[in-house]
Amino acid sequence: MHAGRLVAATVLALSLGATTVSAAQPAAHPKVTLTILISGSGQKGWGVVTFKKKHCSLTACGFRVRPGVLLHLRERPANQSKHPFRYWQLPGGKKVHKKAVTLKIRRNSALSAVYRK
After folding, report:
1. Does 18 fall in a domain?
2. CB 47 within 8 A of CB 85
3. CA 113, CA 89: separation in Å to the nearest integer?
4. Is residue 15 part of a domain?
5. Which secondary structure element, helix H or strand E, spans residue 113, and what is its range?
6. Which stretches of the chain are DSSP H helices?
7. Residue 14: what pLDDT?
């Protein structure tokens, strides 16, 4: 049942004297924010980070994800000769020197794709 119809049915039932109305609501999935930071100048990042058909090419992007979901992130330099990729800075400070990284985000977190100046 659509939310608008559910509200209308609830109002109608209450106006007719019903004391309780039971309606199945879909369980809300809590989400956390994954912030992706990319080295760059101004708002333009020196690379592109992609995961789950989403991408970020700005110096900062925020995405809402379900906590505990496994994310596989990849990076691609915008100009490999000018600003090559150096490393990922993961939540907690760990550096990973690979083009791709897989991690679970359990709470609001930030990670960085660091490129050489």
Report:
1. no
2. yes
3. 7
4. no
5. strand 109-115
6. 3-15
7. 38
Q: Using the 8-state DSSP alphabet, how is residue 98 labeled?
A: S
Contact 45, 58 (CB under 8 A): yes
Per-residue model confidence as pLDDT tens for the chain (117 residues): 444 433 333 333 334 443 444 445 555 679 999 999 999 999 999 999 999 999 999 999 999 999 999 999 999 999 999 999 999 999 999 999 999 999 999 999 999 999 999
Expressed as residue numbers, the domain containing 85 is 29-115
Residue 94 lies in a domain: yes
- The answer to whether residue 73 sits within a structural domain is yes
Whole-angstrom CA distances from 87 to 7, 50, 65 are 51, 15, 23
Q: What pTM does this model have?
A: 0.73
Instruction: Please give the tally of structural domains in the chain.
Output: 1
Q: What CATH number does the domain containing 87 carry?
A: 2.60.40
